[in-house]
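Subject: sequence -> structure tokens, single chain

Hey, anyone have a minute? Need the predicted structure for the following. Not urgent.
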Amino acid sequence: MLLKNVTNYDEVKSQIQSTLEEMRDNPASIDEPLIYHLDVAAMYPNIMLSNRLQPDSVVDEPVCAVCDYNRPDKTCDRRMTWAWRGELFPAHRDEFNIVKHALNQETFPPKRPGDPKRRFTDLTAAEQTALVDKRLGDYSRKVYKKIKDTKGVNRESIICQRESPFYIDTVRRFRDGRYEYKGLLKTWKKNLDNLLGDGSSLAQVDEAKKLIVVYDSLQLAHKCILNSFYGYVMRKGA
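Reply:
Had a minute. Here:
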């Protein structure tokens, strides 16, 4: 529904606003709460489809700059804000430098027996990273009583609306297929109730029960496949 089609928008807004202000001013309330169940109606696939979200569509300014459709009035570069969340050591830069300086003063076992001990700079990059992570973790646990800090940052990405829609079309087919099977499942559940109420034959009842199992299995299979699409999008390097 569009906002311009709502005839009593101001009235509803004022009612909600007054209720919220009442809750703010009188937080100690004895009213019995109302519990609502909100069905987002396949939120993930619909968000992906409406914004054409797919791995290949996430581009940056240099890619847009050399695109054939890069014109002043272009509308194919949809800007979307998303939340990046990362885990960081609570130690600061100077503390990191102290830990690294201490590692530079130490020697470590050789790769092969009989070889001389190695200095920190002689280790491979992977070995150096593992040692720094371990020492910083031990230091943070001792000084800050925790190993990681979680930090969230709002970032903006460009979602190209002209990228090949193969991924999006595939998601749409599976979403629509699940809708179809869920509709058939609902229909045959009603048919089963009608058959039981009419006293139909055992064969008809048995056939209805089999179709209910089939359509329920198909819609569940489509749901599992759709979930794998979301998992793939979240995978590093997708």
